[in-house]
Amino acid sequence: MPGRRRKGAGGCEDAGGRFVVVGLGNPGPDYVGHRHNVGVMVIEALAGRVGGRFRSHKTRTEVDDGRIAGTPAVLAKPRSYMNESGGPVAALCAFYRVPVQRLVVIHDELDLDFGRLRVKRGGGDNGHNGLKSITRALGSDYCRVRVGIGRPPGRQDPADFVLRGFTAAQRRELPVLLERAADAVELIVTQSVEAAANAANS
Known about the structure:
Blueprint: E1 19-23, H1 38-50, E2 55-57, E3 61-68, E4 71-78, H2 86-96, E5 103-109, E6 117-121, H3 129-138, E7 143-148, H4 158-161, H5 168-190, H6 193-200
Parallel strand pairs: 1-4, 1-5, 5-7
Antiparallel strand pairs: 2-3, 3-4, 6-7
Helix pairs in contact: 1-5, 2-3, 5-6
């Protein structure tokens, strides 16, 4: 039921608290549509659901401060490059006085096939530069919504692969993936990370 929260195993919830939900990516028009920016795409899908509008914030982010299914939540896009995400995200959590346990980070994941999702709290960064930066700034006890983009074909460098657009077939499926990831964020915020993991990981 929207608006009700319970703390599940490994959950990010704290009854009555605000969440900060961050979509990772690189700023600027040159990176729009890249695989590495799928976190930004999900946060924009969430903002579309709540009728939100992003505005520039002094923490070097763009924010939409509103509610997800009745729960206070700040949707955010860092204006820094991916490998410098930690500073803006830490500043945003400090500004809104949100503990790391109520931070949700949405990011691309090479080790998941395109179209798959995973939800978890804590863990390593798996070589993801955005997560590395956030973990250095805040520790690792935050929630992650991992959006699968798959591995590069052949011998293509992963660093080059993530800075390319999706294939034509993937672009046709992408809107559904973004909505599923947005659903996972809503479940984290309104229920628990356990509920989101059960739905997304199945």
